[in-house]
Amino acid sequence: MLLGAIGDDFTGSTDLANMLVRGGMRTVQVIGVPGGPAPEADAVVVALKSRTIAAEQAVAQSLAALEWLRSAGCRQFFFKYCSTFDSTDRGNIGPVADALMDVLGVPFTIACPAFPENGRTVYRGHLFVGDLLLSESGMKDHPLTPMGDANLVRVLQRQSRNKVGLVREDAVRHGPGAVEERFAVLEREGVGIAIVDAVSDADLHAIGHACAGLPLVTGGSGVAVGLPENFRREGLLRHAEHAAELPRVDGLSAVLSGSCSTATNGQVAEWLRTRPGFKLDPLRLAKGDDLAGEALAWARELIAANAVLIYATSQPEEVARVQASLGAEPAGHLVEACLARVAGGLVESGVRRLVVAGGETSGAVVSALGVKALRIGPQIDPGVPWTVSVGGAPLALALKSGNFGGQDFFAKALAMLDPGQP
Ligand code: ADP
């Protein structure tokens, strides 16, 4: 085991795992801190749900994950958070980074959320989302982690006991040697955590290279792009060309969708043009109707011949009507619970390949199916890989958060499992 990562949410962890696989590392994502031994892999990502919980709990969970990763023999550790630095003045990025540094006994690490490919760049310590400063982007109104300050040195300093410094783009541009020199200068000045500027993929590769000697790296999935190369340089990545290979999983296929994002609405509409779908009505769920049973009976008639879609995905006006009547949270839970029951019933009927749309929906489905770990495979669309469950009867799972994936995502994902067929 080379790299041990701790992710502060589920789909962000998958995004990091996908990045590591693309870099040639065989990667497994585990859901929460596992009880048992580590799986066979070059990298493991422990997916927590610690982004918006109380800082003390986030620290405790992250340290438990660290202890498990250390016992697995990892050589380097990575703390993954969102590329928009989602946090508040109370945490959780600063407190978790501080605690990981204390336990690992490291005096210096970096914090780099930049992901230029997705429009997240850091310049002179300021985070941009596309052309906007973070504090002028949609993130300023986020319900849980509103980001009102784009100066990450200031933002992190309010959360961290460590002195926070900056490695500027004019150093990063000169490559890994210049970055390492800056690390050394900052460390001598008593800086514990350095925000690092990055405006291009070349910057991320230079930063990744310069981090080869750091026991702990923190950042978004972007900065991880340079890490596999460090292990390759040391001759430690032996299975790189097979990193994205998954065991073949045969069985029936289905798509479950609980996301109501613009992208998912488009994907559902595209599927329904030519293929069968069953729509779940949350108002009927609230009346106690057995919609899971109805959906399963419908699916069993068709599924031997066709992959089916079962969905609650709706346009914003319809979601607003349902939420006005039931409340947003209760409506969400009803739909999640129903889709989770449908998932269980489909698997009992022989479904082995599942595409799931929605972050919370994926969490509910994975937990209902008792899935504890996922081996990460080839990318379907940016940020979304195929995965196969580890332990128990294998299931192929494509778990897509809200706005990811192209219009034909569902059919494209399923077609990837049977290459060469029309
Ligand atoms: P995303 O990744 O797009 O945010 P999530 O699954 O995380 O998707 O969140 C979508 C939420 O909306 C879930 O809690 C889901 O149960 C809920 N939901 C789905 N369909 C409806 C609907 N028709 N009305 C109200 N809520 C819905």
Largest sheet, spatial ordering of strands: 9-10-5-11-4-1-3-2-16-17-18-15-12-14-13
Number of helices: 15
What small molecules accompany the polymer chains? Answer: adenosine-5'-diphosphate
Number of strands: 18
Notes on the protein architecture:
This protein has 422 residues and is of the alpha/beta class. The protein folds into two domains: 3-233, Rossmann fold (3-Layer(aba) Sandwich); 252-417, Molybdenum Cofactor Biosythetic Enzyme, Chain A (3-Layer(aba) Sandwich), CATH 3.40.980.20. It is 39% helix and 20% strand. The chain has 15 helices and 18 strands. Strands 9-10-5-11-4-1-3-2-16-17-18-15-12-14-13 form a 15-stranded mixed sheet, with helices on both faces. It has a three-stranded antiparallel sheet with strand order 6-7-8, with no helix packed on it. α2 (55-71) runs parallel beside α3 (93-104), α12 (316-326) crosses α13 (328-348) and α13 packs across α14 (359-368). The longest helix is centred in the C-terminal third of the chain and has 21 residues, at 328-348. The chain starts with a strand and ends in a 6-residue tail after the last helix. The relative contact order is 0.13. The site of adenosine-5'-diphosphate has 21 residues, from α12, α13 and α14. Adenosine-5'-diphosphate is lined by residues 258-261, 264, 282, 312, 314, 319, 322-323, 331-332, 335-336, 358-361, 401-402.
